[in-house]
Amino acid sequence: MRLPKVTASVAIALLADGRVAQAINLDLGSIDSIKSAARTIAFDMMSFYNGNTTGNIPGNLPGPYYWWEAGAMFGAMIDYWYYTGDTTYNDITTQAMLFQVGPNNDYMTPNQTKTEGNDDQGFWGLAAMSAAEWAEKTWDWMTGVGLLDNSYYVYDGSDLTINCSNVNHLQWTYNAGAFLLGAANMYNYTNGSSKWQERVNGMVKGLDVFFPANNIMQEVACENNGKCDVDQHSFKAYLARWMAATTKMAPFTYDAIMAKLTPSAQAAAQQCSGGNNGRMCGLKWQSGTAWDGTTGVGQEMAALEVIQSNLIAQVRGPVTNSTGGTSKGDYSAGTTSVCGSTSRAIIFREEHLLADRAAWPPIFRGIIGSPGPNGRQLDGMGGGKSALTWISIDYSSNCGNVTSTIGPFAVDSGLVQRKEGMATVRIHNTNMGKIIYSTFPVVDGEAASSGGFAIDGVAGTAAKIKPAFINIAGLKTGKMLPTGNITDTCEGVEATCVDVGSPCIFIQAEGVGIAGTILPDGVDAHPTLHKTLESIRRKAAVAMGICKDEASTPGSIPKIAMVSWSASHKLLSGETIQGNTIDLVVRALSVGQPHRAAPITVALATAAAANLKGLTVHANVSGERVDSDVSTIGHSSGKITVGAKFDDRGSLTHATVFRTAKRRMDGFVYLKRNGLTV
Ligand SMILES: *[C@@H]1O[C@H](CO)[C@@H](O)[C@H](O)[C@H]1NC(C)=O
Ligand SMILES: *[C@@H]1O[C@H](CO)[C@@H](O)[C@H](O)[C@H]1NC(C)=O
Ligand SMILES: *[C@@H]1O[C@H](CO)[C@@H](O)[C@H](O)[C@H]1NC(C)=O
Ligand SMILES: *[C@@H]1O[C@H](CO)[C@@H](O)[C@H](O)[C@H]1NC(C)=O
Ligand SMILES: *[C@@H]1O[C@H](CO)[C@@H](O)[C@H](O)[C@H]1NC(C)=O
Ligand SMILES: *[C@@H]1O[C@H](CO)[C@@H](O)[C@H](O)[C@H]1NC(C)=O
Ligand SMILES: *[C@@H]1O[C@H](CO)[C@@H](O)[C@H](O)[C@H]1NC(C)=O
Ligand SMILES: *[C@@H]1O[C@H](CO)[C@@H](O)[C@H](O)[C@H]1NC(C)=O
Ligand SMILES: *[C@@H]1O[C@H](CO)[C@@H](O)[C@H](O)[C@H]1NC(C)=O
Fold first, then answer.
1. What value does the mean pLDDT take over residues 512-537?
2. Can you tell me the distance from the alpha carbon of 627 to that of 123, in angstroms, rounded to the nearest whole number?
3. Looking at ligand 2, which atom is closest to the CA of residue 57?
4. Which one of 3.40.50.1760, 1.10.3470.10, 3.30.465.10, 1.50.10.20 gives the CATH number of domain 12-314?
5. What gap in Å lies between CA 605 and CA 610, rounded to an integer?
6. Where does the secretion signal sit in this chain (predicted)?
7. Whole-angstrom distance, CA of residue 575 vs CA of residue 345
8. Which ligand places an atom closest to the C-alpha of 161?
9. Which residues contact 428 (CB under 8 A, 6 or more apart)?
10. Where do the H-state alpha helices sit in 101-230?
């Protein structure tokens, strides 16, 4: 028997069998107390999870838990983060969510096709959406599953135990919760229509069945008879989650809903009084500190959700600006850096697009204003050359200038909710297979579009955005220094080969006998430079293990760049950049062409190399950095600021590019059978 520390703040109860119950202390009047209780329960819930350990599969719970419940659990962890701001579990949650997303990004993973029903997929999808929005989707999804009667009771129509002969008249908390939130979403979407207000009120009233005494939530179909199965142990979590969300979408429900969530939370905390640590949660919240003898992921999740839902007034509601239609943001991703000049992006929500990806390109082309399927020039939004580039954002290329728009877009479109201040959005870059963190200021619920940060090539200033690329060392070759050498000699020239973002070879400009401030025209006009650089590139590519011989070197990788000291020099625009405003000068070639700026991957690699003493690049970095935290890299069109961080052992942990983005407009694209109008 463990000996409890007796303190005033811990409720102690002696159970019939002599064990001591130590319920979780909860003062619902104190935000800190709620967060602290949530933290304890989140920890205990995650103690059931081992998917982050060697040999186990990220996102799976061990038996007897089905896959869908793991999805629900990570949904609860996303809620936990949303409510408490505690980021402790974000990495394992992100790992699990991304691991399980499946080849088509739809939470239909091949391993689960046998056990997965629509609603299983829905739980993972809901977890993904709830990091995002309490979307209308919930309603659409649930209407197909259950039935609703005149008392706003929701029945479970999917239980096979009654031989499919009749509607199953069992009522489960999660069904009611899903319908409640669905109705609240519709209420909100219809700008508060009386029809939906009435339905929301009806659903709230209908919840009474699950609160038979003292406003404490009960899984009435199984809790009292002790027959709740492993799945059913978790259902109360979803009702609590969705009741709280309802107060955001339909604020008039707040008092009625909190009148139930508050006593339920208090009771749930008391029921967390069992197991080996004396604080594992049972499900019978009605029983006070007399633990019901059960433990599990579901019980912990239910307690966690109902307790943290009491913080709902403290957190911002979703910004649902894009429900219905095809919304898009058009950001001026002010930059000179990726492929030459300033670019714009049009961003789509995947859910607003047709499921059939083959149908996308003509739609994108139409919107951009490239020739439509019938050869007609449509009056679109793009400007000629940008056409294929912004389309690439969603599913192929990885151009950093567009990456920078994703974070602000996610906030402005309501995909993610952010409090005022600095927001960090995690972006899964499917092309690099990497997580990018984008940090930027949020003002009035929107990504700030003004700030003191100027980028060359963009008029005025805009908010500073930091997409940070995590763990991008060795993406292609497995090593940050793919040859194993700090410097190699290729064609008699000292070269440093780095794989950060993508493989890149650095040489000193003077190593090939040219001035480092040469502009693209000068590179092209040089009689032998192209040939020299290309043969260095091919030799290095083989040494880096990218290709087996020089002849088979791909055109796109590795990139090659010349570096030199931070001298003042003339830019493409004719303006002069001062040497003391940059740390070094870079001239990169991409697919055989001198780049008009610096490809983002080259910028990342440069920042990494600039920090590694003894490398070719470091040797040419000015002793005193312009900005001590970052590398300020000069290129033919101006400069770009990149940060690189290393861990204690000298491994690159992440690199950051600073850029700006401004939201230009959002709107609808109308698709017609015979073409497009914008
Ligand atoms: C797995 O995650 C838990 C948190 O739930 C953490 O305590 C543990 O250290 C992690 N294990 C590994 C191997 O990362
Ligand atoms: C699918 O199962 C295989 C074999 O057990 C495992 O290696 C893989 O990681 C699983 N993938 C997912 C997404 O669960
Ligand atoms: C389902 O049908 C079988 C065979 O017809 C019957 O034995 C069983 O009792 C039925 N179950 C229910 C719950 O009605
Ligand atoms: C809600 O109000 C906004 C702003 O007045 C309007 O644009 C929108 O169409 C309305 N939505 C519905 C569904 O009526
Ligand atoms: C819709 O939801 C938003 C976000 O929570 C809220 O501010 C707004 O008041 C809601 N609209 C109505 C009509 O209640
Ligand atoms: C999006 O939000 C902005 C700012 O609140 C508002 O002006 C605009 O009308 C909204 N757009 C839609 C489509 O609701
Ligand atoms: C980034 O900006 C450059 C310059 O306009 C453009 O050529 C390139 O295609 C852009 N990348 C993307 C993905 O838009
Ligand atoms: C590393 O440098 C040594 C000479 O110092 C050379 O023999 C070796 O080939 C180089 N390794 C690679 C992979 O280039
Ligand atoms: C770059 O560094 C090398 C090695 O220290 C040095 O010899 C060279 O002069 C530097 N180049 C410039 C332009 O400063």
1. 93
2. 46
3. 9
4. 1.50.10.20
5. 8
6. 1-23
7. 27
8. 3
9. 98, 434, 435, 436
10. 118-130, 136-143, 173-189, 194-206
- 414 closest CA partner among 315, 322, 349: 322
Cα of 203 from ligand 4 centre, angstroms: 24
Pocket of ligand 3, beta carbon within 6 A: 161-163
pLDDT in tens, 157-167: 443 333 333 44
d(CA 291, CA 302): 15
Distance from Cα 482 to the centre of ligand 9, integer Å: 23
Domain 488-657, CATH 3.10.310.10 — does that match? yes
Both tokens assigned to 223: 């809790």
Residue 657: which pLDDT band, with cuts at 50, 70 and 90? low
* CB contact at 8 A, 239 and 177: yes
Q: May I ask the CATH class of domain 331-428?
A: alpha beta
Residue 250 CB contacts under 8 Å (≥ 6 apart), including other chains: 183, 184, 187, 188, 197, 200
Tally of CB atoms within 10 A around 473: 24
Is the shortest distance between the CB of 96 and ligand 1 below 6 Å? no
Ligand 4 center–CA 143 separation, angstroms: 23
Whole-number Å distance between alpha carbons of 181 and 248: 10
Is the shortest distance between the CB of 450 and ligand 2 below 6 Å? no
Strand pairing of 631-635 and 584-590? parallel
Q: Is the pLDDT of residue 532 over 60?
A: yes
Mean pLDDT computed over every residue of the chain:
71
State in Å: Cα 163 to ligand 3 middle.
Answer: 6
Task: Give the pLDDT score at 176.
Answer: 85
Quick check: 221 and 270 in contact, CB under 8 A?
no
Burial class (CB in 10 A: 0-12, 13-18, 19+), 130: buried
Output the CA 614–ligand 2 centroid distance in Å: 43
Our mutation pick for probing the ligand 3 site, out of 163, 165, 166, 169, counting the most ligand atoms within 8 A of Cβ, is 163
**Whole-Å CA distances, 226 to 209, 474, 489:** 18, 53, 74
Q: Which amino acid residue places its CA nearest to atom 2 of ligand 2?
A: 111
From the CA of 544, the nearest ligand is 8
How many angstroms separate the CA atoms of 263 and 268, rounded?
9
Each domain of the chain, given as residue ranges in start order, spans 12-314, 331-428, 488-657
Closest C-alpha among 171, 350, 79, 315 to residue 71: 79
Q: How far apart are CA 36 and CA 27, in angstroms?
A: 10
Rounded Cα–Cα distance for residues 438 and 422 (Å): 10
For residue 202, the CA-to-ligand 9 centroid distance in Å is 76
**How far apart are alpha carbons 170 and 115 in whole angstroms?**
23
Helix (H, G, I), strand (E, B) or coil at 593: strand
Other CB atoms within a 10 A radius of the CB of residue 30 amount to 11
Of 85-94, 365-374, 404-413, the range with the highest mean pLDDT is 85-94
Which ligand 3 atom is nearest residue 162's CA?
A: 13
Which one has a higher pLDDT value, 598 or 184? 184
Instruction: Report the separation in Å between the CA atom of 164 and the middle of ligand 3, taken as the mean of its atom positions.
Output: 10
E strand spans, 369-463: 421-429, 434-443, 446-447
Closest CA to 272 of 244, 239, 241, 294: 294
Residue holding tokens 């107390």? 33
How large is the angle between the packed helices 400-412 and 387-395, nearest 10 degrees? 70
Q: DSSP letter for 316, please.
A: P
Same fold, 331-428 and 488-657: yes
Is the per-residue pLDDT at 463 higher than 50? Answer: no
